[in-house]
Amino acid sequence: MSDDPKANGGAGNPAIDPTEPRPIWSDDGDAPFDLGDDPEALDSDKPIYATPRPKKAKRVKKEKSASNETVEIIKTVVFALLIAFVLRVLLFQPFTIPSASMEPNLYEGDYIVVSKWSYGYSKHSIPWSPPLFDGRILGKDPTRGDIVVFKLPRDNKTDYIKRVIGLPGDKVQMIANKLYINGAPVKDVAVSRAELADVFGPRPVTQVRETLPNGKSFMTQDYGPGGDLDDTPVYEVPAGFFFMMGDNRDNSIDSRVEMSAGVGMVPAENLVGKAEIIMFSWSPGASLFNPVSWFANLRPSRFFKILD
C-alpha cells in the first residue's frame, strides 16, 4: 500500500478496504445510483446508494393528491344530495304554481314552499311515491281552510294544490253560487268588483272574503252566477278523505268534479304538505333560457308572502 494520501482514497479519507465491494462505473452512464443535485455528494465520506429520482416522487405525489381530491369532491356531492333528500322528504319541498285555479291568493308563476311535517308522512312524501308502506306515519288531519298540495287521486302522481273545505263527515254543497257546509251558508262579503280578461275574454269578476265555520278567512274570486259548478249536489265526505276547492271558484277543477274527470274526494294518504309561503314570483313569460326575462317578469310585491 502506498504512503501517498491520494492512493489511500484522497486527503483526509480513510484507506479503502480492498475486500469491500465497490460500485462499478461504466462509460455509458448506467451507474446504479443517483448523485442527485447535491454537488458535495462526491466528497461525502458515506457511500452513495441508489435513491428515487425527485421528479418521479413528485409525480406520484401529484397523482395521489389529484386522486384524493376527486374522492373528496365525490363525497361532498353525495353528502350534499343526501342532505337535500332528507330535507325534501322530512321538512320542506318547493313547488311552482302552474295555473290560475287558486287566484287571488296564488298566481301562475308563484314559487312556494310546502311544509312536509304538517300532516305526517306517507309514500307520497318520498320522490316518485315508492310503495314502501301504506297510510301515514305521524299522521295529522289538516285544518279546514289550509292550502294543501296533494297527489291527484286518479293517477297518484300529479301534484295539485287546493284549499281544504270539507273534513271527514262534512256535507258540502254549492247553491246559487254560494258555499254551504253542513247545511249552513258560509259567510261571505264582496270586497271589490272589476273586469278581468282571461281565456274567455273580458269578464266581470268579484273578489269575495269568505269566513269558514272555524273562523278561517280568505279571499276568493268569482265570475258571477250561472257557472257550471255554481249549483251542485250535496257531497258527503267519507272518513279518511277531504273535500278540496280552488279559490278561483269558477275556474277550478276540484272536488266538485268527480274523480274520473276532476279531483273527487282526496284520501289522507295523498296529502303531501301544507303551503306556507310564497318565496318568489314571476309573471308568465319568464323563460329559463332567457335570463333577461327573469328580471323583466319579477313580481317583488309577492316575495316572502305568508299564505292565509
What does this structure look like?
The protein is 14% helix and 28% strand. The chain contains 2 helices and 15 strands. The strands form 3 sheets. Strands 1, 2, 3, 4, 12, 13, 14 and 15 form an 8-stranded antiparallel β-sheet that branches. It is globular. The model is unreliable at 1-13 and 25-36 (pLDDT under 50).
Write the layout of secondary structure elements.
Elements: H1 54-90, E1 92-96, E2 110-115, E3 147-151, E4 159-166, E5 171-175, E6 178-181, E7 184-185, E8 187-198, E9 201-211, E10 217-222, E11 235-236, E12 241-245, E13 266-267, E14 271-281, H2 291-296, E15 305-306
Antiparallel strand pairs: 1-2, 2-14, 3-4, 3-14, 4-12, 5-6, 5-11, 6-7, 8-9, 9-10, 12-13, 14-15
Give the overall shape.
globular
Average pLDDT over all residues? 84
Look at the helices and sheets and give the structural class: alpha+beta
Helix amount, in percent?
10-25%
What string, H for helix and E for strand, traces the elements in order? HEEEEEEEEEEEEEEHE
Distance between the termini: 109 Å
Low-confidence parts, pLDDT < 50 over ≥5 residues?
1-13, 25-36
- Total helical elements: 2
Strand proportion = 25-35%
β-strand number? 15
Largest sheet: 8 strands, antiparallel
Cα-atom Rg, whole angstroms? Answer: 39 Å
